[in-house]
Design brief:
The protein has 144 residues and is mostly helical. 81% of the residues lie in helices and 0% in strands. This is DUF4149 domain-containing protein.
Length: 144
């Protein structure tokens, strides 16, 4: 039988996972292919969407951390929770500021082809790590 804290942790984990998959791997790439969406318009929309996503992620991460902290989970649950939370923190504290500077420049009129940044690739790479950690965390919590 799954405990209340395990149920909350798994629900928050899978909601978090679904949001990341839907926004980062579905909405974001499709947006730039939509008719009439220029790079500046796509960046403006993307900044708002990712700001909301990251705020939601922080709330869900906090819910997972709290439910894990008040229970007696296996070491794997603690480690996977830490991986997901640290990746999110790294995205927010290290990568997002660089992405924001780049999008600020493009929105101010700089040619997007100039001074291409690798920050987007780092963000996507971290998203892949976070998705793997969330899948493993959700499954581990449910099986425990």
């Amino acid at each position: 039988m799954i405990t209340l804290s395990a149920g909350i942790a798994s629900a928050a984990t899978f909601v978090w996972l679904g949001m990341v998959l839907a926004i980062s791997f579905l909405e974001a790439p499709l947006k730039f292919g939509a008719p009439g969406v220029t790079i500046p318009i796509g960046l403006g929309i993307g900044r708002r969407v990712f700001r909301a996503l990251n705020l939601s992620e922080a709330v869900l991460a906090l819910a997972v951390i709290i439910t894990v902290a008040v229970s007696a989970p296996p070491v794997a649950v603690i480690a996977l929770t830490a991986v997901a939370a640290v990746v999110l923190a790294g995205q927010l504290a290290v990568v997002r500021p660089s992405l924001n500077r780049r999008s600020d420049a493009v929105l101010a009129g700089e040619d997007p082809a100039l001074h291409r940044s690798r920050a987007h690739l780092y963000y996507v790479g971290l998203e892949v790590v976070k998705v793997a950690a969330l899948i493993a965390l959700g499954c581990t919590v449910l099986s425990g």
